[in-house]
Amino acid sequence: MAYADQSTSSNRVIALVVVALLHVLLGYGLVTGLAFEAVKKVAQRVTTIDIEEEKPKEELPPPPPPKDAPPPPIVAPPPPINISPAPPAIQTAPTAPPPPPLVVPTAAPPPPPPPAPTHTPKPPQPRNAPGSWATPDDYPTKAMREDRAGTTRFSVTVDAEGKVSSCQVTGSSGHSDLDDATCKLVTRRARFKPATDGEGQPTSGSYSNAVRWQIPK
């Protein structure tokens, strides 16, 4: 930029000098009486000089910055080498061992027989007379009025204390009211000696009998 400004200033100085010379010549011509045409031609020739300004030289762009050098390649370390120990040597036996002896299981001995009872088991025995368990006075009124009769067979379970715990009709008289009356009366009135087991201890047992229902005369 400084060089271009310096050339422009020199051209302007030259132009000013030329213009000053022209004015001097014009003045001299007027004074000396030179021909006006000659001066005019000289003036035209001088004034038509084109002064071209020198174009400033284009500055070259600065060189590009150096590119960064590429990073060095990454070298992976070699994989570790697994050196396993040699497998143990396999020793082969010259002969196979003999098979174990065959054990045949024996049957378990039978359990010993139970000891012989010291007492003979006995069933329950009535303490009071079975005829007192159901009397003619206990005859159901409806059955007596309808002149119905029959025999009811029953079985009772007696506990270890000699009491009747349950009663079942094993043979019906053909009339449900007579059967029901039989079990109710026996359960309420019958008393027993309890049954005994093989050691003579009281235990539960059963007793069977029958009640004959007959209308009294």
In short:
Residues 139-150 have a biased composition (Basic and acidic residues). With 217 residues, this protein is an alpha+beta fold.
Structural write-up:
The chain has 217 residues and is α+β, with helices and mostly antiparallel strands. Among the domains are: 2-47; 125-213, TolA/TonB C-terminal domain. Helices cover 29% and strands 16% of the residues. The protein contains four helices and seven strands. Strands 3-2-7 form a three-stranded antiparallel sheet, with helices on one face. It has a two-stranded antiparallel ribbon with strand order 1-4. It has a two-stranded antiparallel sheet with strand order 5-6. The longest helix has 31 residues, at 2-32. The radius of gyration is 78 Å and the shape is elongated. Mean pLDDT is 78; it is low at 1-5 and 46-51.
Fill in the keyword field for this structure.
single chain, 217 residues, alpha+beta, TolA/TonB C-terminal domain, 3-stranded antiparallel sheet, 7 strands, 29% helix, disordered N terminus, TonB_C, TonB-dependent_transducer
Shape: elongated
N-to-C CA distance: 170 Å
CATH domain class of the domain at 125-213: Alpha Beta
What structural category do the secondary elements indicate? Answer: alpha+beta
Count the beta strands: 7
Model regions low in confidence, pLDDT < 50 over at least 5 residues: 1-5, 46-51
Radius of gyration of CA atoms, rounded to a whole number: 78 Å
How large is the share of residues in beta strands?
Answer: 15-25%
Average pLDDT level? 78
Biggest sheet descriptor:
3 strands, antiparallel
CATH-defined topology of the domain at 125-213:
TolA/TonB C-terminal domain
Q: CATH homologous superfamily of the domain at 125-213 - what is it?
A: TonB
